[in-house]
Amino acid sequence: MANKNNLTQVYQDVARQIRSILIAQVPVYKGERKDIKKGLLKGSIGVTADANGWAIREKKYGMFLNQGTGSYKNPSTTAAWNPNPGRGKGGIRPRYWENIPRETELKIMDTIITAIINQDIQLIQDELSDI
User: Fold this and answer.
1) What is the distance between the alpha carbons of residues 110 and 43, in angstroms, rounded to a whole number?
2) What are the residues whose beta carbons fall under 8 Å from the beta carbon of 16, sequence distance 6 or more?
3) What is the pLDDT of residues 103-130, one digit of tens each?
4) Interacting residues of 82 by C-beta distance below 8 A, sequence separation 6+
5) Own/partner pairs, 64-67, CB within 8 angstroms, 24+ separation
6) CA–CA gap between residue 85 and residue 102 (Å, rounded)
7) DSSP class of 30
8) Which of 14, 27, 40, 69 could lock onto 91 through a cystine, CB 3.0 to 4.6 A?
């Protein structure tokens, strides 16, 4: 009989998809920030996913580049990715590089829901074959 909670592979696939999106969106400066220019932020991105959702890990300054600082700080989870926010005075303008486009989020949720439905169908088929 299939394991009812065995969606590990699906969650790992989702985590890889999200990480790929974030790596494509992470800021890479051409200026004075050598740590960002070298791609250390990009290399630090990790994503885990499970039945409770997903979590992102990155170097601490990634949060400031995502949400902005000072007068520009705006921790929005729905704002669109802003790859070129321009320069600001008195803070960092937000890039929202951690935000996943809504259509992509819906595709990911569809992948998970489809896997759960297929798993439930398999469980029912297994139980019927035992009768």
Assistant:
1) 28
2) 47
3) 888 998 898 899 989 888 988 988 888 8
4) 93, 94, 95, 96
5) 64/92, 65/27, 65/36, 65/41, 65/92, 65/94, 65/95, 65/97, 66/94, 66/95, 66/96, 66/97, 66/98, 66/99, 67/94, 67/96
6) 20
7) S
8) 69
